[in-house]
Amino acid sequence: MLALALVAGTAGCSSGLSGSSGAGSSGKTTITVAGMPATTSPKTRQQFLDAVAAFEKANPKIKVKPTDTQWDARTFAARLAGGNAETVLTVPLTEPPGLIARKQIADLGAELEALPHSGDLDPRALAPATAADGRVFGLPVTEYALGLVYNRDLFTKAGLDPDKPPTTWDEVRTAAKKISDTGVTGYTQMTVKNTGGWILTAMTYGFGGSMEKKVGDTYVPALLDGPAEKALGQLAAMRWQDDSMGNNHLRTQQDAERDFAAGKIGMMISTVNSYNRYITQYSGKPADFGMAALPQQNGGRSTLLGGLMAVVSAKATPAQRTAAVKWIDYFYLKPAYDPAAAEEQAVAQAADKLAVGLPTLPFYSAAVSDPVNVAIGRHTNIPTGNFAPYVAGVGKLEYQVEPPVAAQELYGALDTAVQAVLTRKDADPRAELAKAADRLGPVVEKAQAP
Q1: What is the DSSP string of 25-78?
Q2: Block means of pLDDT (10 residues each) for the chain, length 450 residues?
Q3: What are the strands, taking DSSP E only, across 54-208?
Q4: Residue 305, phi then psi, degrees to nearest 5
Q5: How many angstroms separate the first and last alpha carbons of the chain?
Q6: How far apart are CA 177 and CA 115, in angstroms?
Q7: Staple 292 to which of 22, 47, 165, 384, CB 3.0 to 4.6 Å?
Q8: What is the CA radius of gyration of the chain?
């Protein structure tokens, strides 16, 4: 069963030193924490600051210094290695495996056992930050399964049923052609800043494959095993045979979301939380937004699991580590197990005109999460029926985590392959994947070196 979503704070890095500020002359333990909402969401930001004040009042020996800078794949590793990141970091699910291997984040096992409802945490929610030996190095902030976002109005205009969106890639292709025949882009693919590789990875999961596989004790690229080639071939066919993907094939996520909200795109792969940006940043019409589960093909039964994990810098002192996990529990986990805390967040987010009630993956067992869903449901402000195909479909799929080794580098290499296939009619999907595999092999090997 899916849970109802509240909007988590944004991930970030700041100039605060993660391990340099421990117990000061006042006897307090000081921690820096990422995740303060931006100034563009004043009520939610104030709620965050109020939460900091309430946390400090309940824990008078802890001082919290929040930051609101954004996580950036291009600078994160250097900032963390240089000690210029927070004590508490919120990172995409791609990051914990590498951070664990490089010993840059702390084992939180002992602290986790002391948390309320720790025994009710869903192992799937902990999996992205769980090492091979079972040790836990992070706690969930938000987790989601990628799906197909589509414009219900464009579906209707193309003679398609908006309540029965595509469930296979063959159906996506057919729908995209019908939509493009009305004069707009039927389907679009993000292709730059690692988004091309990210979405192609999700497609590959839907085709029954993976991007990395284990050979002995080592992960290697699996780009030439078949499913990735079929997924990329699907895009080539839609682009060059059907001409259903429009003319812009170097889209950022922002480009795609803006044009989708403007009614210029019929379908794309995206996240549940993209609905927030659709409403708040791009002024899309709520009634037009539809979402379905990730389409499948050739026996595939999986979707890509994404989201954010809260981790603690390995440079934190034992006192900072304990304080950090207390903060993670208070701000991120408590609204997932405490109905009163969940409702308080829902009220603030609704006041900021943020989406309340989006379907997401639960952190806890149904006995814990169901009362929370009831509390959030009292403040739902989204067209819930538009997400019904997603809720029904994603419950039948397996959740496949992002590639375990050098995921961002993999995504970047695959950007080039996707761009080539969509911009050059003579580009061969297998040849482009082979180039990416050659580029990735040494990177994946180095990332696993002792």
Answers
A1: TTSPEEEEE--PPPTTSHHHHHHHHHHHHHHHHHSTTEEEEE--PPP-TTTHHH
A2: 54 34 71 89 87 96 89 72 85 87 92 94 90 95 93 98 98 98 98 96 97 93 98 98 97 96 98 93 97 96 92 95 96 95 92 90 92 95 97 91 90 97 98 97 90
A3: 62-66, 88-92, 138-145, 147-151, 185-187
A4: -90, 125
A5: 40
A6: 52
A7: 165
A8: 22
Residue extents of the structural domains in the chain: 3-143+307-382, 147-270+405-447
Question: Using CA atoms, how far apart are residues 89 and 72, in angstroms rounded to an integer?
Answer: 12
Nearest C-alpha neighbor of 324 from the set 82, 90, 75, 54: 90
CA 344, 321, 87 angle in degrees (round to 5)?
Answer: 75
Q: Residue 438 and residue 96: Cα distance in Å, rounded? A: 25
Answer CATH for 3-143+307-382 from 3.40.50.1000, 3.40.190.10, 3.80.10.10, 3.30.1490.100? 3.40.190.10
Residues whose CB falls within 8 Å of the CB of residue 55, separated by 6 or more in sequence, listed in order: 62, 64, 326, 327, 330, 331
**Residue among 145, 165, 253 nearest 205 (CA):** 145
The H-assigned helical ranges of 352-406 are 366-377, 388-394
The answer to whether 87 and 32 are in contact (CB under 8 A) is yes
- CATH class label, 147-270+405-447: alpha beta
CA 268 to chain centre: 16
> How many Cα atoms sit within 13 Å of 116 on the Cβ side?
13
User: CA of 77: how far to CAs of 81, 82, 104, 314, 406, in Å?
Assistant: 6, 8, 10, 13, 12
Contacts of 20 (CB under 8 A, 6+ apart): 83, 315
